[in-house]
Amino acid sequence: MINYSADELDMIQKLELKILKEIIRICKKENIEYFLIGGSALGAIRHEGFIPWDDDIDVGMTRENYDNFLRVVEQYLGEEFYLQSPSSDRNSPYSYSKLMLKGTLFLEYAQRNLKTQSGIYVDIFPFDEVPDNESENERQFKAVQFYKKLYVMRMLPTVSKAPENLIQGLKAILRRCIHYSLRLIPKSLILKKIDQFSRLYNGTNQSAFACLDFPVRNVEYVLKTTLYPLIEHKFEEITILLPGDFHQYLTTHYGEYMKLPPLEERVGHRPYLIDLGTYGKEEK
């Protein structure tokens, strides 16, 4: 894997922080709750900012807050930014939202021919109540994942990386055939099913929230008593919100989370194409 140069990664992180500040600004205006999740939450605690080799920021919102954010974001959004969601971008391959920086490019291989915005971004994920009952929990997850896979295959005709051998080439051809078959299904129907199953247990007084966008069940699962009350914490030069019992949250996700991984695992996830636009030129 070709990794970033130090200057390149530093600028990507600065631009992502710029986007995060815009999300926080809008949330404060409308009293919308958000919280950092995954590696972003880990970075806040272990490094008081980005994990040094990390190249993304992930933000979570409970479904009510997520809906409120999408309702008001265009009203407040600065001209430098672009919200990508299924409703704002008809070619978006994602069922969740991304806030992007215009004039930049952060393009994955599978999206190289897609007519859509692909700038440097911060992911914004909805968290829904999930059932305490294990079998119901699993059924909900499988239903959401089934329709999410249909949606991605409908929106993206190609695989995630260039085929390197005959077998991979055949798989790429099969994927393209599936894609064009799924184009016969209205995307609104698939999105409706994702939304329906994701919201199924909201308001039913379950004990936990989960983000059902992740392909492994309970990867982003958090008890309400772990999430609340949210707490403030340093992240680079700003203050952000985290799950209140961040120790429990991070232990569940990473085990001994203060322990650094081996050197060979300290890499980012460089996409197919990167262009920092005028931001990169200004830095020079």
Blueprint (SSEs and pairs):
Elements: H1 6-30, E1 35-36, H2 38-47, E2 58-62, H3 63-76, E3 81-84, E4 97-101, E5 105-107, E6 121-130, H4 134-155, H5 166-182, H6 187-198, E7 208-210, E8 221-223, H7 224-227, E9 231-235, E10 238-242, H8 246-254, E11 273-275, H9 277-283
Parallel strand pairs: 2-6
Antiparallel strand pairs: 1-2, 3-4, 4-6, 5-11, 6-7, 7-8, 9-10
Helix pairs in contact: 4-5, 4-6
What's the SSE pattern?
HEHEHEEEEHHHEEHEEHEH
Largest sheet: 7 strands, mixed
- Ends: how far apart? 26 Å
Beta-strand share of residues: 15-25%
General shape: globular
Helix-residue proportion:
40-55%
Number of helices: 9
Determine Rg (CA atoms, Å): 19 Å
CATH class: Alpha Beta
Give your account of this protein's structure.
The protein is an alpha+beta fold and 284 residues long. The protein has one domain (6-130, 206-283): Beta Polymerase, domain 2. Helices cover 42% and strands 17% of the residues. It is built from 9 helices and 11 strands. It has helices at 6-30, 38-47, 63-76, 134-155, 166-182, 187-198, 224-227, 246-254, 277-283, and strands at 35-36, 58-62, 81-84, 97-101, 105-107, 121-130, 208-210, 221-223, 231-235, 238-242, 273-275. The strands form 3 sheets. Strands 1, 2, 3, 4, 6, 7 and 8 form a 7-stranded mixed β-sheet that branches. A two-stranded antiparallel sheet has the order 5-11. Strands 9-10 form a two-stranded antiparallel ribbon. A hairpin with a 2-residue loop joins β9 (231-235) and β10. α4 (134-155) crosses α5 (166-182). It starts with 5 loop residues before the first helix and ends with a helix. Residues 27-255 form the LicD/FKTN/FKRP nucleotidyltransferase domain. This is LicD family protein. InterPro entries: LicD/FKTN/FKRP_NTP_transf (IPR007074), LPS_cholinephosphotransferase (IPR052942), NT_sf (IPR043519). It comes from Streptococcus shenyangsis. It holds the Pfam family LicD.
